[in-house]
Amino acid sequence: MTVDSGVAAEHNRHSWNAAVEAHASHRPGLQHYLRTGGLTVFPEELALLGEMTGRSLLHLFCNTGHESLSFNRLGATVTGVDLSDAAIAYARSLAEATGLQATFVQADVYAYLSAAAHAGLSFDRIYCGYGAICWLRDLATFASGVAAILAPEGRFVLVEFHPTSNMFDPEWRLRYNYPHGGELLTLDGVGDYVGAAGGGLSPGGFAEGVRDFVNPHQCHLYRWGIGEIVSAFAAAGLRIRRLQEFFYVNGEKPFARMRLDDQRRYYPPDDVPKIPLMYGLVAE
Question: Which one-letter DSSP state was computed for residue 16?
Answer without folding.
Answer: H
